[in-house]
Amino acid sequence: MLHFEDFPVGKRFDFKPVVVKAEEVIAFASEFDPQPMHLSEEGGRASILGGLAASGWHTSAMMMRMLCDSYIHETASEGSPGVDSMEWKKAVLAGDTLSGSCTVLEARVSRSRPEIGIVRLRAVVVNQRGETVAICDYANMIRCQRAGDAA
Q: What is the CATH code for 4-143?
């Protein structure tokens, strides 16, 4: 189990590749973002995106799964106080393979809850061509192994 002390500035967690499946793009869009470019190949080709494209929210959800699989499930995580920024840089099309990593930008012990560390990270998601499709800056609250210890 990883604790706050295991998150020094610069530590990196790599994402396992995820293939974006057309049926999942359509299912997500049908429920949460039913715009034409997310519902059919034809609708996507008629848009500036050039094909059946995952919603930015779907891209964010896939990124969240990659974060869970890369480190969160093995961490004494207490959740997140929020996202500082979420950028969708390039369309994610059905058939793309996404990967990437997240890197620790800053880590400090909470002043009000010394048993919790606040770790700021940047996640970068890329497609199979190495093109950045999403960038997210966010914080994760992680239990300290020893309350009040600084990393």
A: 3.10.129.10
